[in-house]
Amino acid sequence: AQKITQTQPGMFVQEKEAVTLDCTYDTSDQSYGLFWYKQPSSGEMIFLIYQGSYDEQNATEGRYSLNFQKARKSANLVISASQLGDSAMYFCAMRGPISGYSTLTFGKGTMLLVSP
Amino acid sequence: NAGVTQTPKFQVLKTGQSMTLQCAQDMNHNSMYWYRQDPGMGLRLIYYSASEGTTDKGEVPNGYNVSRLNKREFSLRLESAAPSQTSVYFCASSESPGVTSNQPQHFGDGTRLSIL
Prior knowledge:
Chain A has 116 residues and is mostly beta strands. Chain A is built from no helices and twelve strands.
């Protein structure tokens, strides 16, 4: 079985500060992929960043980076220089061997609020 | 630049009524998915279609049926709606995933369904 755990129901950060959103995963397979999505209050799901289990470097996309610690099975999202528009729900998801790597398993999400 | 289009955006049903949620994608993706999102539960996979002509159950398939009408369209049917099916429903699509695929799933804007 594969499982994603996001232990922070909510996080608060001040504008321009960095914030880390936690994600741990559970899988017995060596091959998998990890994704982060953002869901603003308007409801759409926006893809942010991807990390493959064999990638040697941590993924980065603009202000987003993924702190990937394979031995600890964690894939934390780091947002640098937070902006008011970063206020949203954030979901970690994993593509693993279940269903032949066809599907994603999502965590329950972390609500991030950025204050001025 | 439509991406994934879901109809309707909102719907209210009475218990026992049936309805079909429509989803269409214009990205020539092979794989399509239906999720439901409930408060505090993240996104849970209902059904998916890895390629045209195939459909498979996800985590929460009971009470639903799907049809992959063609490569573009994937519909979700509630035969006899129940209050427990009140939720936000998302359709998504992706390139054919694989063990090393970094291709994300692209989501529609969701259908907010209330069953009284």
